[in-house]
Amino acid sequence: MSTKNYVVVGGSKGIGHGIVRRLLNDGHHVTVLSRTWDHQDLDVNHIIFDVALDDLNSDQLPGEIHGLVYCPGSINLKPFRALSPDAFRQDFELNVVGAIRVVQAGLNAVKASGSGSIVMFSTVAVGQGMPAHASIAASKGAIEALTRTLAAEFSPDVRVNCIAPALTNTPLTARFFSDEARAAALGEKYPLARTGTVDDIAAAACFLLSPDSSWMTGQILAIDGGLSSVRK
Question: Which of 34, 139, 140, 213 is catalytic?
């Protein structure tokens, strides 16, 4: 396998970090954009970057990018009546505007690779209609629309796909897993009788980055334990 260049935005924790480790294990060069980096044992190019505050210039990135992953997200779970318009704006800025700015900065380098792949993240709540998910579902719904639009616009040079996970055990969702009995009960709601792991989602992301998915673009890949399509 030839060594390739990958950029992972939000690669210091959770799913993003799982993707970084998989790419490094496969011998690739990885650039991580995140606010912090506490993994000095890993050989990455780290760029301090806050998607909500910082501008990103193309000259900060490798000249050739084979895969670009946008991982930042939010989990602002509140009833609709408790969400202010500003809460919707903040989630949209993080989930959608941040992704737009990163893709615009990296697009020429992704095209330069000859067969680049862009991976973004949605949520099972976009297609399922879940209480207390109004803000996150609204912004991630925009990500799904953006995925399909960019897939059409960038084809055939760049593939654009999206992963829509269900509840996954990450630092962002730690409060749902702090109690073992509660975590087990949550898992029983899924057809596969468990919630997701970082590796479940990272494996799917690396598949979408790899040549193994070379005939896929504009897809929303549900990695959700069957929640979106199966009833027990």
Answer: 140
Residue 51 has pLDDT above 70, yes or no: yes
Active-site residue, 34 included: no
Please return the burial class of 83, using the count of CB atoms within 10 Å of its CB with bins 0-12, 13-18 and 19+.
Answer: middle
Q: Which of 122, 135, 139, 213 is flagged as catalytic?
A: 122
- Indicate the CATH number of 5-223 among 3.30.930.10, 3.40.30.10, 3.40.50.720, 3.20.20.80: 3.40.50.720
Backbone angles phi, psi at 47, to 5 degrees: -115, 120
Tell me the one-letter amino acid at 181.
A
**Residue 1 — very low, low, confident or very high, per pLDDT cuts 50/70/90?**
low
122 in active site: yes
Residue the block writes with tokens 């690396």: 206
